[in-house]
Specification:
The chain has 119 residues and is mainly alpha-helical. It is built from four helices and no strands.
C-alpha cells in the first residue's frame, strides 16, 4: 500500500495522545478524562488502519465512520481539558488542530467512499 497520509497523521496524533495521557496522570493526577481520551484518541488510527484492510467498501465505510465518531469524542475531551484549564491553551489548541485535521480528512474520505458506493 502506498503511503497513506491519514494513517501516518492518525499514528502521530495517537502518539501525542499517549504522551498527553502520561502527562495528565503523572503531572496533573487526572485519571478519569485521561483514560477516556487515550481510548478515543488511539482508536482513531486503529480504525483507519483496519479500514484499509476491509473486505468491502461497506466495511471500509463502517470502520472509517467509527474513526470519525472517535475523533468527535476526542475533540470533546480536548475542549473540556482546555476549558477546565487542565492543559494549557497552547497544548490544547495544538492537539485540537491535529484532531480537527483528522476529522476533515475522515469526513472527506467517508463521503468519497459513499459516492463511489452509489456509482
Amino acid at each position: 500500500m502506498k503511503d497513506n497520509p491519514l494513517i501516518s497523521k492518525s499514528l502521530y496524533f495517537a502518539a501525542r495522545i499517549v504522551k498527553l495521557h502520561r502527562y495528565l496522570t503523572k503531572e496533573k493526577k487526572e485519571t478519569i478524562i485521561s483514560k477516556q481520551i487515550v481510548r478515543s484518541g488511539t482508536s482513531i488510527g486503529a480504525n483507519i488502519n483496519e479500514a484499509n484492510y476491509g473486505q468491502s467498501r461497506a466495511d471500509f465505510i463502517a470502520k472509517m465512520s467509527i474513526a470519525l465518531k472517535e475523533t468527535a469524542e476526542t475533540e470533546y475531551w480536548l475542549r473540556l481539558l482546555i476549558l477546565t484549564d487542565t492543559i494549557s491553551s497552547a497544548m490544547g489548541d495544538s492537539l485540537l488542530e491535529n484532531c480537527l485535521e483528522l476529522k476533515r480528512l475522515l469526513v472527506s474520505s467517508v463521503n468519497t467512499a459513499k459516492e463511489k458506493e452509489d456509482e
